[in-house]
From TrEMBL:
Segment of the intact protein contained: 1 to 239 of 411
ABC transporter domain span: 4-235
Keyword field: ATP-binding, Nucleotide-binding, Sugar transport, Transport
Domain of life of the organism encoding this protein: Bacteria
Record keyword Ribosomal protein present: no
Gene Ontology molecular function terms on file: ABC-type transporter activity; ATP binding; ATP hydrolysis activity
Organism: Longispora fulva
Protein name per its UniProtKB record: Multiple sugar transport system ATP-binding protein
One cellular component term from this protein's GO annotations in UniProt: ATP-binding cassette (ABC) transporter complex, substrate-binding subunit-containing
Protein's UniProt keywords contain Nucleotide-binding: yes
Length: 239
């Protein structure tokens, strides 16, 4: 079981920027929740608060129903994939995926077993001995996902995982990443500014504007019955 509860979360930075403004949102067990909104609306900040990389100014975070703000990041069982995959260039694909297991002191045999499982699930089983420089953008992205899921996180956070790819490849990978995320079966919070990506990937979409949550619902709900003009414009709902 893995749920996230955001309760009246606000994040103000020292320079006065209010990046997240009184956001309350529940992510259900096993669902893919997409945070959608334009650049600067507070998506990454919210994700970083869930991961423990940032503390909110006020508000509470619940993981599996328990207050989690005092839990250090490494004990939250949360994995995060960033937009720049930050693979280790000197390590092979296998080495990159195994890296978190090595840090955790998992035995070498178990490392190779788990790496093989994850790589097979992501369709990169043939690439284990390659270096990142020998991979395509889409393949690198899978390696980054593999490295994130190999420790079997209870919660999977993805921050614009497709945004460093060109638009053609992004369109191609949209459906693919959606089925990969679904196959993982892990509770997922997926950040994007791309409405087509959001509508493809999401079980539910949470729409943000300037730190404020505007609307939450299934793609059909937010597309068909947008709460505000802003939501309608963002999703391209016909008038
Ligand atoms: P998004 O991911 O939706 O593009 P962010 O969460 O990165 O948005 O940023 C939200 C707002 O907070 C932006 O105005 C950004 O400039 C600001 N911001 C982010 N991080 C910091 C920081 N460390 N200090 C000051 N302002 C920040
Ligand atoms: Mg961001």
């Amino acid at each position: 079981m893995s749920t996230v509860g955001l309760q009246k979360i606000t994040k103000a930075f020292p320079d006065g920027t209010v990046a997240v403004d009184n956001v309350s949102l529940d992510v259900r067990d096993g669902e893919v929740m997409v945070l959608l909104g334009p650049s600067g609306c507070g998506k990454s900040t919210l994700l970083r608060i869930i991961a423990g990389l940032e503390d909110p100014t006020t508000g509470q975070l619940l993981l599996d129903g328990e207050p989690a703000l005092d839990i250090p990041p490494r004990d939250r069982h949360v994995a995060m994939v960033f937009q720049d995959y930050a693979l280790y260039p000197q390590l092979t694909v296998a080495g990159n995926i195994a890296f978190p297991l090595r840090l955790a002191g998992v035995s070498v045999e178990e490392q190779s077993e788990r790496v093989a499982d994850v790589a097979a699930a992501l369709g990169i089983g043939e690439l284990l001995n390659r270096k990142p420089s020998q991979l395509s953008g889409g393949q690198r992205q899978r390696v980054a996902m593999g490295r994130a899921i190999v420790r079997r996180p209870r919660l999977f956070l993805m921050d614009e995982p497709l945004s460093s790819l060109d638009s053609g490849l992004r369109a191609e990978l949209r459906a693919e990443i959606s089925s990969m995320v679904r196959d993982l079966g892990a509770t997922t919070v997926y950040v994007t500014h791309d409405q087509a990506e959001a509508l493809t990937v999401a079980d539910r979409i949470a729409i943000m504007r300037r730190g404020v949550l505007q609307d939450v619902g299934t793609p059909a709900e937010v597309y068909g019955r947008p709460a505000t003009m802003y939501v309608a414009a963002l999703l391209g709902t016909p008038k």
